[in-house]
Amino acid sequence: MIETIRSLVAIDYPALRVLVIDNNTEDPELWRPLEAECAALREAGHQIEFAHLPNWPGFKAGALNWASKHIGPDVEIVGVVDADYVVDPGWLRATVPHFSDPAVAFVQTPQDYRGWETSAFYRACYVGFAYFFKVGMVSRDHWNAIIFAGTMGLIRRSVLDEVGGWDEQIITQD
Question: Is the dihedral of CA 2, 27, 113, 172 positive or negative?
Answer without folding.
Answer: negative
